[in-house]
Each structure stands twice: as structure tokens, then as C-alpha cells.
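Quick note —
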Amino acid sequence: MVNKMMIGKVLLFVYVFAFFASQTTSLPLSTNKRWIVDANSGERVKLACVNWVTHLQPMLAEGLNKQPLSNIASQIANRGFNCVRFTWATYMFTRYANHTVGDTIDNLNIPKMKAEIAKHNPFVLTMTHLQAYDAVIDELGAHGIMVSLDNHVGKPGWCCSQDDDNGFFGDRHYDPEEWLQALAFIANHYKEKPQVIAMSLRNELRGPHQNEHDWYKYVSEGARTIHKNNPKLLVLISGLNYDSDFSYLKKKPLDLEDLGNKLVYETHLYSFTAGAGSTWTAQPVNRVCATTIQGLKDRAGFLMGGDNPTPLFMSEFGVNLEGSSQSDNLWLTCILAYIAGTDMDWALWTLQSSYYLREHHVDGDETFSILDHEWKHLRNKEFPQRFQLVQKKNQEPISALPKSHKMLHPLSGHCFKANNKNELELSDCLKGAGRWSFDGDGSPLRLMGTATCLKVIGDGAPAILSDDCLSQQSSWRRVSLAGLHLAARDENGNQFCLEKVGDQILTKKCICIEDDSKCMDNPQSQWFQLVPTNMD
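Predicted structure written out below.
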């Protein structure tokens, strides 16, 4: 008698393969300078991902106690994500690969979680951890979702702290040989799953033992191990200090030319990175945003430029999506403006809105999740609008279309278009948004396809479109440290900034554009990012 489970696996593989073969993006992926591209056509593939955790003690993708697996995969695709950064722990596959999920849940003494898993996804309880991990990846593939495999920790558990013995090569739970063994196994194991497009070496290197010498040694060994076992994969490399710092590469680049066009760097950023959290409410917002972005450029962003640009994947960033953290709220507007302006690849932290067991707490909530606790609805109704432009590809290296700009208001996620009164009004960034040309400070903001430019009239008046493109009223400059205020002078020489007020764009007195420590008003209603694009 033919094994029905085997037939099911074969049919699922055929379905996944056929699905990806039918997509405009063919796999595998490669790199071209700072872009991730389709290895066959050379067309850019932008990664707009969400993190999904499997590296905690149950060693099972979170949420299978809340919703059927197929529902979760559908949620990911329907929310505009095209990939998942899927975490795993080294010990999952070196020490516990053949343990069943049900036995592990029993050993953790969390019967409520087991009962809920049995209700929504009973099949995983009799699977080994490897089989359960495979099942999730297969379901993601069936929904057209790419997967980047992230080696998050060695010993399963919450990450991360300076002294958890889980952070750097040679730590108690980070034996380099066992780690290399796991990388080789996983890279080889997923050779035949086209939706698996990338593997990371390790999440957030850190701790008292971190040093550059060992970083170069083991990063090189790990990258070559992955590439040898599965040369189709992109290889993601993280930096020191919780994956926030690659500055040492300025003096000594990493020599991995034998990887071909498969090397991608990844970085992480939060409002609290490098202890910056409290500064968002203690210092002027323009200053803190400028400092944050300059620090990101100095430590990691430089990798996207220079003589040898490389893709940089922001594989973790996120905020409390309940809106209760003022620091997070201010930070998010700043970082969304940067991501939109660079059109970089990213993975939001996070998908999972609950945990089977996290730090001794059963069924704990995750406020950074896009979903509510039951994995049914969005946690924050503003999420789709705020993220719609950064989820889409705006720059294409092989496009023949001329460069233009969309004018993004990062606080709201809206773009703008001209109405029949020659004034600006809110627009969806993906449909109907105006395209603008701008040649730098002192230049007009010209609406492409017309002979009109944006003009300032006075305080509180709408910004209008006019054929006057040469006067100071149409000469626009970025005037704050954050580089996100657009200002021009009226006929009397008074300077005003664009500001979103309701559904209108007015010109008003600029908020805190001088670097004055006493000016603590929130200027973000006046922040606008000119987002480069050469896409339809």
C-alpha cells in the first residue's frame, strides 16, 4: 500500500514548485551592486518581510495554538508581505531534531498550549521539530511567500542579553563546530525548496567575548559552509553589537568573492538601539532623528554605497504597535522616512502576537506584533497605510523609465496629488500619487508631465501649483537637521514649511528647524520624504 503521507508530500512539493514557476519573480535570487535581484532576469526583487519566531523552548512556529497554519500564511500574504524571516535555534537540529513537538510540549508542562494546538493544527504534535519546521515552510511556499532562514540562537530561548552565553563564537551555547554542522545540514536540507531564498549566519552577535578577529574567521567559514551546501541561497551576514555595527569593514573588507553574487549584509535597529530610547522624548525630535540616521549610515548604511555597494537588509526593526510608547512612535516616523528614501529591503519585528512559553510566561502577549493576541485582526489599524509604500518596490536598476519622486508624509503614510484647484490633497501612494522632479536645494518642486511647480503663498495658506517656477516662492530647500522639512519663502521673504493639516497641505511656520534644545514641539506633521522612483 502506498504511503499516503508520502504522496501528500510529493503533491505539495509539485504545487509549490508550480506556484513559484508561475510567478513573475523566478528563483533563486542573486545580487547586483546594492540590490537583490532575480538571478535569471536581473530584475530587482524587494524583500518586504515579517519575522516569525520558532527559536523559543517549544521549538515550534508560534501561533499554531491560535489559528490553522493555512490561515496564518494567508494573513501574511494578505498583509502585503512577500517573505518571512523564519527563526530557528541550532539545538533544534543538532540535539532535538528527532524529538516530537508533542513530547517537547509535555516536557515543558504547558498542557493548555498543547490542547489549543490540537484544536487548530493537530498534525504537528506527532511531527518531529524538523518536520514541523518543514510544514510551515511548505505552507508559506504554497502561498507564494519567500523564506529567509535565521539562525537566531544556539540554545532555544528568548534572545538576547549580554551575558546569556548564547551570543558569540565560543560561548557556552555557541560552539562553532556544532553551529557549522547545523548550517551545513539546513542549507543542504532545503536545496529542493525554491521558496527558501536565503540563510543568515547568526542573529545579533554580542557579549563580552565578541571581537573582530573571530568575527572575520567564523563569518567566512559560516558563509562558505552555506554556499558549499546550497549555492542558490543568499547568505546573510550580521555585524557586531547586536547586529548594529559593520564600521570595521571600512578598514578591512570581508573577502568572500568566492560566494559570487550571493552576499547580503543585515542590520537591526530599534528606538532603544545603543541606549537611544530616552533621547526621543528628552531632546528635539529633529536632532534625535538626524543622529539616529547618521549613526545608521556610519555603522551599516555605508555598505549600500561607495565603490563596492552591497545589499543591506534591515532584518529587524519594529515598535510597540499599540501606540503607547512615545519614543517608538517618534522613532518609527523617522525610520520609515529613511527606508522609503533608500528603498532598502527589510523584515518587520514581528508576526507572532503570542508565545506558547516565553521566559516562564505561558501565552504571553507581544505588543510589537502586527496582529492581535488571537492572530485574527490587525493590532494597529494604521499599519496598512503607514507601510504601503515601503512594502512596494520603488527603484528598479534595469528600468528605462525616468527618475521621479513621490512626496511621502511618513507620519500618516499618505502621498499627495494635485486637485482641480491646483492645490495638494491626500492620495494613496500606490494609486494616483503625483510624481515630482527635484534637483536639490534651491530647485523647484515640479509636477512631472506639467509646466507647474509647487509655490508658497503665505502662512496657513494651501501650497499651490503655479507656472511660476523661477521665483523664491518656488525655490524649495530641506531646512532641518532631519532633512525632512521642505521650505520656501513667500514674496516678503518669510520662510514657511509644508505641513499636513487634515486632508490639506498648507504652508506654515516651520517647527523646531533650528537646533534649539528648548524647542520640544513635535515637528513630524511637517516631515516629507521625497521618495525616488523609476517605476510605473
